[in-house]
Model the fold of this input.
Amino acid sequence: HVQLVESGGGSVQAGGSLSLTCVVSGYTYIGGCMGWFRQAPGKAREGVALIYSDGSTRYADSVKGRFTISRDNAKNTLYLQLNSLKTEDTAMYYCKKDGYRGPGTQVTVS
Done:
């Protein structure tokens, strides 16, 4: 039974930071590609960041230089560090792997 659970969201002022965590269960080993996406009310889903098994990363242009994705395979955990937050970063943030996603964690920037 695969399960992804995000945490770490919250409300911050513009310019602030948040650290998101996604704990993955149901895998013996969480190698392979994992990522984060977000969706704001009335807006299309947006891919935010990906991390591959070799540690390479890709970011949406809108977050490049401000967000950092990382992983700890030993802990079955994916991370997203959000710095220099902007009001347009307000959205529900989801982690994803192999077609699965978590329930999301809300990030609100005012």
Observations:
- DSSP finds no helices and eleven strands in the chain.
- The longest strand covers residues 18-25.
- The mean pLDDT is 95.
